[in-house]
Amino acid sequence: MKAANTIALALSIAAATVAAPAAVMAAPAAAKPTVILVHGAFADAGSWNGVAAKLRADGYPVIGAANPLRSVKGDAEVVANIVKSVKGPVVLVGHSYGGAVISTAANGNPNVKSLVYVAAFAPDQGETALELSGRYPGGTLGQALAEPVVLASGGKDFYIQQDKFHQQFAADVPKAQAALMAFGQRPIAEAALTEAAGAPAWKQLPSYFIYGTGDKNIPAAALKFMAERAQSKKTVAVPGASHVVMTSHPAAVASLIEEAAQAK
After folding, report:
1. I want to staple 197 with a disulfide (CB 3.0 to 4.6 A). Which of 51, 123, 212, 238 is the partner?
2. Which residue intervals define the domain AB hydrolase-1 in the entry (predicted)?
């Protein structure tokens, strides 16, 4: 009996020793924030492909929002609805005009933990994208636009001329790739560019900025001004990069997004 009891005790100790590490390993890791990528004018969600691939490889859930490019308020409502559908924390990322959209969309959504502006507008209340882009010299977008498309509503849609798209919008992207981007560009409504922004979320949320010093759509000086005004937690200026810095330098953009996601 004594031998049997000794064997039983040894087996129970061994079982406990094995079970303890298994229980520790089974503890769920904290879920990573979902990254919502919002494209801007003359682009689509595909402009984020390189960034999304890096984020997904690093374990981040990613959503590429389809930005209607019709009005700041209306577009922000579309993005805000996507944010509301996500369970858990969100990092909102906007490119170009998409920056104005995320500045509004984050309001009233407590699960948004930070904002990342990628060559993007961060307007204050009452400001417009059109006014901000012309506040500093260096922008040449107006000269590259095609004749506007007149809509049935009386409004206008703007495109970049396809033969000028490469140099204007994506000078540091291979020519063949830029040609496909020009072909698939999404137009923006004039009303969206001239609509005054509402109260900006960057006054309450931590913000991060990255842009290229070779941007011809939004002058680098304007981007620097907006980053400083928003008291950016970190600002990255990529030497010589074009307006589509997320396409030409996806690793740098993804790195900043991950830094925003990991910040406490």
Report:
1. 123
2. 35-255
